[in-house]
Amino acid sequence: MLFVVGPPAVGKMTVGNEITRLTGMPVLHNHLTIEPVLPFFAFGSPPFQRLVGGFRRRLVEEVAASELPGLVFTYVWDFDDLGDERLVREYAEPFERRGGRVLLLELEADLDERLRRNSGADRLAAKPSKRDLAWSRRHLLEADAAHRLNSREEFDGCPAYLRIDNTHLAPGEVARRAVDHFGLPRAAA
């Protein structure tokens, strides 16, 4: 399992899709579970959290038990929130229990670039809730102000961790670096 973490609009989904292209590992970008629930329950509400979290847990369990080559899982992690750390550990557990590797790719990019990416065509196509650009921009800025969405030294020296500043890198280059760094098997061409 490869977690791709970082703040909103850093490129987690886009890089995840490129890793999928290189490795064949399917990507579960966070909005695949968020978007179906939003028409029914407000973002962050208890029913929203139960449904999104429950679906993610079941999907991860099924992928871990399958013949699939792994899973790329994107996540916005608040590093000051112990609940987020518990969730990441919970999502990793089915892979660890079966002897699989759990890897962490952390992306960072400067705020101006993330604000530019926030209105990107691929992002808006995959994430309908982000199409209200004023709300999405405000949400991004508020999340940055309220949460620590990049780590500090928590993972320094950990071989299962890679941090990349992708402000000026193409998603394919970021994916290639991650695949090479972690020694992930490449998909058959």
TrEMBL record:
InterPro entries in the cross-refs: P-loop_NTPase
Protein's name according to its UniProt entry: Shikimate kinase
